[in-house]
Amino acid sequence: MAPQLAWTGLGNMAEEWSRISVQTSDDLQPQHRPRQRLPPQEPQHSGSDHLQESITKADKKSTCVSDDKATQKITSTITAAGDIKDKLFIDCSTNQPETTKQP
What we know:
alpha/beta; about 35% helix
């Protein structure tokens, strides 16, 4: 089975990226996105409606949000997810400099 990629915060910037991922065999697990804005998908690209579920199911987790509080909540959920060994997390979010300095 191909590695599964979960993406949180699929804004306009990521629409094309997610479409390409679906076409190039990554098993995209989209979430926190109005379903009608997702690219057409095969049944195996099921997605998930909860952040915790996507962390558990996916091998790779990408995030791209523009809200500092959302980024902090996502990070807290990831660190509380339990065993995240061997998972790759990619954050492309835009945050205020003060937020990045917080523990």
